[in-house]
Amino acid sequence: MENILMINSVGEFSSLNNNETLHPLVNIVDLSKADERLNRRSNYGFYAVFLKEIKCGDLHYGCNYYDYEEGTLVFVGPGQVIGVENNGELYQPKGKALVFHPDLLKGTTLGRNIADYSFFSYEVFEALHLSEVERKIIFDCYAKIMYELERGIDKHSRTLIVSNIELLLNYCVRFYDRQFITRENANKGILHKFEELLNEYFKSEKPKEIGLPSVGYCADQLNLSANYFGDLIKKETGKSAQEYIQFKIMDLAKERIFDASKSVSEIAYELGFKYPQHFSRSFKQYVGLTPNEYRNLN
């Protein structure tokens, strides 16, 4: 396997793509200015928002290609690896990339809240597909940032640039909400698979072997990133993925409590609890009664 290309700064990324570095911590990079290049995998030390202008397949995350076409946004956070293994073929990069270093955000509202924009941790098949109107809004945000970069740095530049990045990201939150709705059938299919996954999990020996199912485990089994999976479940059910799993566990617990042949401890271990006391506390918190009190209702 080839070495991963480390790109630590905005200046390095700009230079790599034959763009002038207009600000050491932020830039709008025109990828069409880059020379033709071989595919390779890269690790960025900054945030990047790629706006793809043509249908192409040069980006790939994990083991799968991004599902994107013209007018699609792909988000990458610091430390993430993106790209394709070198297959010996040259390709011409296209589109525009907003790149900004975490240091740009220090001391700002966006800096304090950047972790809330969970799409920077989305992975396979989770890019944001824009309508024509949405695409124009994103271009407008890019244009405002570019205007500030080209006019030169003054005491207002950082505030205005960060404000426009925050505006762009807030629009992306809205557009992802729209995408969750417009892809409702696909999302319901994932919700159905999630329910089936939990059913099969608790019919197997996995609770005793692994313990309680985690959000990360379920997302991995469904080939989704944990953040995208969590956001999708929240949109579909109103519950977080963790709350949904907890609901499932307690629903099974209430059913199994009435099996008088098993002790509360046995039921706890069957469900994946490491300690029966933990199960009893969780049950009391969720149901309002201890397991034995609930059992005596029968």
From TrEMBL:
Q: Does the keyword Transcription regulation apply?
A: yes
SMART domains attached to this UniProt entry: HTH_ARAC
Keywords from UniProt, A to Z, are:
DNA-binding, Transcription, Transcription regulation
The family database entries (InterPro entries) matched by this protein are listed as: Homeodomain-like_sf, HTH_AraC, Tscrpt_reg_AraC-type_HTH
Q: Where is each HTH araC/xylS-type domain found?
A: 192-297
Recorded coiled-coil stretches: none
Which Pfam families does the entry link to?
A: HTH_18
The record's PANTHER family line, in alphabetical order, gives:
ARAC-FAMILY TRANSCRIPTIONAL REGULATOR (PTHR43280), TRANSCRIPTIONAL REGULATORY PROTEIN (PTHR43280:SF32)
Task: Please report the name of this protein according to its UniProt entry.
Answer: Helix-turn-helix domain-containing protein
Source organism of this protein record: Pedobacter panaciterrae
